[in-house]
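ok so heres the complex, two chains, lmk if somethin looks off
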Amino acid sequence: MPVRFEVNGKAVAVEVEPRLTLADCLRHHLRLTGTHVGCEHGVCGACTVIVDGAAVRSCLMLAVQAEGAKVVTVEGLSHDEGLTPLQASFRKHHALQCGFCTPGMITTAHALLSEEPDCDADRVREVLSGNLCRCTGYISIVDAVLEARAAYKRGGERA
Amino acid sequence: MRTVNSFIGSPIERLEDLRFLRGRGEYVDDLSRADVLHAVILRSSVAHGRIRSIDTSRALALHGVHSVITARDLGGRIPNVPMRLQPLPDFEPFAQPVIAHSKVRYVGEALAVVLAQTPAIAEDALEVIEVDIEQLAPVPDRHVSAQDKSLLFEEKGTNLAIKFHAVRGDAAAVFKNAPYVRRESFRVQRHMAMPMETRGLLAEWDAARGRLTVNGGAKVLFFNRRTLARQLGLAEDAIDLVENDVGGGFGARGEFYPEDFLIPFAARHTGRAVKWTEDRREQLMTLNHAREAECDVEIACTRDGTILGLRGHAYVDVGAYMRTNGAVGARNVAQFMSGPYRIPNIDIDVALQLTNKTPVGTYRGPGRFETDFFRERFFDIVAEDLRLDRIEFRRRNLVSKAEMPYSIATITPFESKDEFDSGDYQATLDRCVHEIGWADKTKLRGKLIDGRYHGLAIGCFIEGGAAGPKESARIVLEPEGDYSVFVGSSAVGQGLETAFAQIAADALEVPMERIRGVFHGSTSHVSDGYGAYHSRSIVMGGSAILAAAKEVQDAIRAQAAKRLGCTPSEVTIVEGTKAIGPNGKSISLAGLTNEGISAEGAFLNKRHTYTYGAHAAHVAVDPKLGHVELIDYVVVEDCGRIINPLTLRGQVIGSVVQGLGGAFMEHLMYDEHGQFLTGSLADYLVPTASDFPNIRAVMLEEHPSPINPLGAKGAGEGGIIAAGGVVANAVADALRTLGVELRDLPLTPSHVWQLVDDARRRATAE
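and the predicted structre for the whole thing:
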């Protein structure tokens, strides 16, 4: 069936099976492969995208449910050249190794900091506890998100 | 003249991050091909049985299904998954066929491959394949296995794959007259690496050229290409195995699995591109499991705590088959039970018992995590028995600097001798005591504060690295004057491109920007490669880059000499940008040749490096809930030479947290029928961001390794190895006044609660 929505500021129209997840639609129909699929049962958070401002697991949402929505993926949070303050903070703190969970971490952290730029370390940990990482041990990720708060307080990085 | 570079040792931000952070990484499932067939695999839901029939007719009738491959389609001869490490003839009868053909031996074993237009259609087809399996008595654990009543391989007459034997000195003699002997049993549960990216393969067969290209390779691509070439009857150079971005390895990803044959076979069989992406449930039941080990050991000491000997038996549940590196963990349990300690007399055997469970393989710190838990837990029990200070007991028995190189127990069969290369093990223990603040915290031990008992523990470890025999690198001076680096080492997410660029830039004396790229893993880059395992990449690949740098500089001098009209030895390369002759005449390296200058180098090595150190933990245990909070955790390790402190810290802390997962929560469970019970991430729990926020790492480079030009030691596993033993001792220390008897992992809340409850019942009974 047809579905129309907005991805990273661009209108898209795709013909999909009703059972297709938003994650697979983004990856395989729209070729936005920055969104990763880790578990397909909503636990690992690798597939997190931002739908109408909220962090959402795109493996638990059907593509047809995105009708009319504004979807932002990790690609939509990136500058053409260089890194955003959040991404640069991840790099500085070595908050990623294999990079597979990273898009979900970035989108989750972006949604959090956009809403709560004053959140404390416990809140960051609580929110990120829905995203699994097998490489870093998380400490560097929490540090990276905490340091990136300054950029959001200035209102410099809203999707 | 510029000063010599020192990128080595600097916390250089990673080159890889620029693509990963912006969603521009390229993992195998990100690849697409026109007209591709999607493969989905039908897996056995029965642990042990004889296949009567597989009826695929209803699946084939579904619209969009191209074909279904079963053992029958392989043409009579079903290839086996080979042993990559310790390829003893003893293991051959227990090899795994790439597809089940007469029996199934674990839940998850491949029975058929469905090829269809979409993965969804292929999954629909799985539902309508009718499989008839005659169920046989399951072998769910090592005890049933050892009875040899129900046999996985009837023709062998036993479920015992092999026994390894670790020997040093004369244990029998020393136990005869030992002043103090104690015997204990310990157990570690089955768990696994679980990389975040599941496996995937994309195979393409070019019939006209007779060439096969397989994306999705990882870890050991050259070995896997040799294996696949032999199985398919192709020349090695007719196959390209390509390494994409890899979402974590930890020992498990990249070994040769049945799918590494089945998907390329399907591509050749159909003449179409075939893509397969593992789902999480498949990963949990088919990727190598690990760690399920038990021991029953005795220690002999003097009354002042000098260890005289260690002897006994260990048992490893290896699952249904022996494949690729499935013997390494068990071997290490026996060989490294002595850890960094001087134990003059050792006699330990380890039985590799087959069961109807997923086959095992290496997982970061293979055998070492298990055996460190056994040993360090045992040491705390012994120290308490002898009324000795736990730190002093360890300090007294650590191998000293003066004893280096120090020989450890020899393993048979597949004789393996080994020795520690260098280090001051007492120094890292003392530093760790200081860093955790032992003197201040020791007054908290066993204290009940706000409803929780506090405990403290410390333990020492060694981490082997740098497996030989060889690694290769090639460096190209591009026509424009930049350098490209090609290595046989593989990247599994550990930041190899950055570390290798640092090493290459220092060796070539150029800024890092002049290293155009580090190209790794794929079989097309160098003539021969060995890959990423046994914490070998920095030592082996890095040293190969040094060798290649020297070779390319020689080649540049030779080429420049022709242009400058002098001999090569008279040419000086300055700042990696120009060559100067004896009369001061210089030419730029950019444009020196039209095609660039390429040179290959290799590093050969038969010895191992040993990173070493100590871990300490402070915990608070809630006896009512069984919850353990990790209040503080410190790692001190010396890895000889630090290439990049930023990425090294990442390895150490990430590795500790994986170890804490194994210590506290991760458990692959089966029922008594061999049915797999933990097929989702809601069942198989791994650490999250809120679990272990307090971990510190102190990284030292006091004792460079004498066996490689970098002085580096493999350092990816030290964090995980000691974690289980140290936190178990800290929990036991916290609950010491209750008299808990802690001998098993994992320390889940229910297990800790049970330990407390058992201790109270015993106390009441007395």
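quick notes: The CA atoms of residues 48 and 56 of chain A lie 5 Å apart. thats all i got rn
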